[in-house]
Amino acid sequence: MPPVKDETIREANCLDIINISEKSPAKNSALVDVRACNKPAAKVWFRGVRSSKFRHVYGVSFKRERCYDNIKITRNAHDSNFCAVNPKFVAIVTEVAGGGAFLVLPLDHTGRLDFNASRVTGHKGPVLDIKWNPFNDNIIASCSDDCTVKLWHIPDGGLSMHLTDWLVELHGHKRRVAYIEWHPTAENILLSAGFDYLIFVWDVGKGEAVKVIDCHSDVIYCMSFNRDGSLLATTCKDKKLRVIEPRRGIVLSEGPCHLGTKASKCTFLGSQAKVLTTGFSRYSDRQYAVWDQHDLSKPLVCETIDSSSGVVFPYYDYDTNMVYLAGKGDGNIRYYEVVDEPPYVHFLNQFLSGNPQRGLGFMPKRGVNTAACEVFRFYKLHTSRGLCEPISMIVPRKSDCFQEDLYPDTAAPLPALSAKDWLSGMNASPLLISMKTGVTISTHKPRTSSKEAPALQPQDANNRKKFAFLSRETTPDYRPLGTWQPENHTNDNDANQTIMEKSQKTNANQNTKFHQLQRMFGKQTGDAEPVPLYKQINQGDVFSTEHELRLAFNRQGEELRIVKRQLQNSQQRVRELEQHVAALQARLQREESN
Questions:
Q1: Packing angle between helix 513-521 and helix 539-593, nearest 10 degrees?
Q2: Which residues pair with 322 in a beta bridge?
Q3: Which domain covers residue 281, as residue numbers?
Q4: How many domains does the chain have?
Q5: In this structure, which of 201, 381, 434, 437 has its CB flanked by the most CB atoms within 10 Å?
Q6: Rounded Cα distance, 291 and 297, in Å
Q7: 147-177: per-residue pLDDT in tens?
Q8: Cβ-contact 73, 94 below 8 angstroms
Q9: pLDDT 10s digits, 518-564
Q10: Does residue 98 form part of some domain?
């Protein structure tokens, strides 16, 4: 066998390296000089893994005792999240026999839910969407099948009884209202989209519509504001994506979106003037696409996700430039990183779970746990079990210090504009706050009366009458009606009349409702059988007594919950202090040994 020359071997090695580099899948490229070849200008593009600080993000489900269990989650087939979260409360749309209701729980009220838990029950039809006010953690908006949008005030401790009195009721839609969206920077601006193909722009401070957008020819699938709220992106059943100027109702750009028959969703991508949409292809494959908001004639990128049938919802994080894609009925959540250069969206990883989801709520960035390097938190509604399960998306870091690269300044719970300023044409970026304190930032804005915002007061006229009656001072008089006489006695008989009145009052006091109940249920010595209830108390007295007892029971239960929460906080603080003392002792021992 003839010997092989060294030059031939070096050329073969060079060719092998070039072939391998051309076949390797790539997302990022690095130029490497090939030293094995004697040719002076031989260079090859080696394709490696792109570096990203979010490359190793992973999801962690909370333990069962930190979930919300025994919830009758709605079975409505509407394409909505059915869950809304803020740093104080979690709200979940529930299944009811008639009308519509949703549950509101404080975040720390985890575990198994009481079957008779209090709910918001003011709608006459099924609730289709709920959203918390971004500037007031106690105000939540809901829309329903009864063609109305309503605003509710939730007290800080949660609900102690069913809430039926709304703050504002907004009428205008002729058919059911499918979606609602709060303005990200302007106060008291709310948008609602209905099955009448209309979008209403509401000033909830005045309780009236300031603009009606009528540019859609079919059912609206989704609405999304950009960062400063100057533009609105919508998807529609006519398979078109639109970018709208919401104050004038003018369509700035319009183009064909996903060609599938099912619903498509959209969201703006930060300050990059781009829109991301999710939908279905002509062959029912799920897709995501990135568009230039100024030119919607064709997408910048369009990629196939898989062939499942559930509608995909996008969740974009402005602070980390990550977008999460979660399909209804899926058990997984895919997450991507958004960049300025093509292909604009890079797949990072996915959170896998064997339990499908009916909906997902998400916590605003000001409510995540910075100590655990948590960058996003979902609240997953299970389809089969009545369970709401929090899922934390965490960046693995060894240091316990605050990670400034993970937590830039985020949107504050303060409006940058008033409703009047925004309607006059002004735009402003969101006000920002630092997350370095490590404390969950929530708002506390008690409901107060104001002449400028009369619509944000209870609208029930019967309640106003009750409040007016209760505010008057009452003077009890226990005398029987038959013994009452007008005070026209003479001065000579004043003393005798006063004694007689006192005696009558003393005798009448023995016939109060309390003594009647005591005689009925408390057996005294020498007493005969208790007199039947219907002979002692009339029906109205029984109802009023039950109402008073129920109110006292609710107040006592609320006090017990507050005491329990204070006890838990104190125990947690004690554990933290013990850990700190143990760490200091270990450090002191190490220093002494050195």
A1: 80
A2: 317, 337
A3: 62-411
A4: 1
A5: 381
A6: 9
A7: 999 999 999 989 999 999 999 999 999 999 9
A8: yes
A9: 666 654 444 444 444 444 444 455 456 677 788 888 888 888 888 88
A10: yes
